[in-house]
Amino acid sequence: TSEQIEHLHRRFKQLSRDQLTIRKENFDSIPDLEFNPIRGKIVHAFFDKRNLRQESEGLADEINFEDFLTIMSYFRPIEMNMDEEQLDRFRKEKLKFLFHMYDSDHDGKITLQEYRNVVEELLSGNPHLEKESARSIADGAMMEAASICVGQMGPDQVYEGITFEDFLKMWQGIDIETKMHVRFLTMETIAHCY
């Protein structure tokens, strides 16, 4: 809505310190992100050209307000008047954004190493969990992904990674639409990604 865009514009101006663009370092002023274990991946996602709906790959050095709106559109809440086709497109857009967060080398696959990195980052705040345990969790999850997406594999067959189609299969039945959204509270915009 126009009211939400106004809220976002105020937030953009606050983050950019009244400049025309935001750079990665501007995200340092967001207290809620400071303690998020995947803070780097979240910030990276704002500058990922794939999420900015640009044809090229890589990272933008800075984003303008239009780019900021594009990124925030992935977090818009579901609308009650959406038909099945719109809901499906809406869901795929959100999942593509998440997929890009995991696929750090931009090759169209989430490899075991990329998944290990994410799991290690997520669990890095737990002092009782060793790095080897985090790797075991990632390895087990990747084996489960292979069984869901490929089925029974032969002894010499290697699962090279999760494609976006695989990612869609894995998220089937999980309600991403209500878990990845922005809530507008008072005069400030606070992004919550559950």
Automatic annotation (TrEMBL):
GO cellular component: cytoplasm; lamellipodium; nucleus; ruffle membrane
Start and end residues of each EF-hand domain: 90-125
Keyword Metal-binding assigned: yes
Record has Cell membrane as a keyword: yes
GO biological process, one term: cell differentiation
Topology with respect to the bilayer: Lipid-anchor
Keywords, sorted A to Z: Calcium, Cell membrane, Cell projection, Cytoplasm, Differentiation, Lipoprotein, Membrane, Metal-binding, Myristate, Nucleus, Protein kinase inhibitor
Localisation: Cell projection, Lamellipodium; Cell projection, Ruffle membrane; Cytoplasm; Membrane
GO molecular function, one term: protein kinase inhibitor activity
Pfam families: EF-hand_1
Family the entry assigns: Belongs to the calcineurin regulatory subunit family. CHP subfamily.
Official protein name in the record: Calcineurin B homologous protein 3
High-level lineage: Eukaryota, Metazoa, Chordata, Craniata, Vertebrata
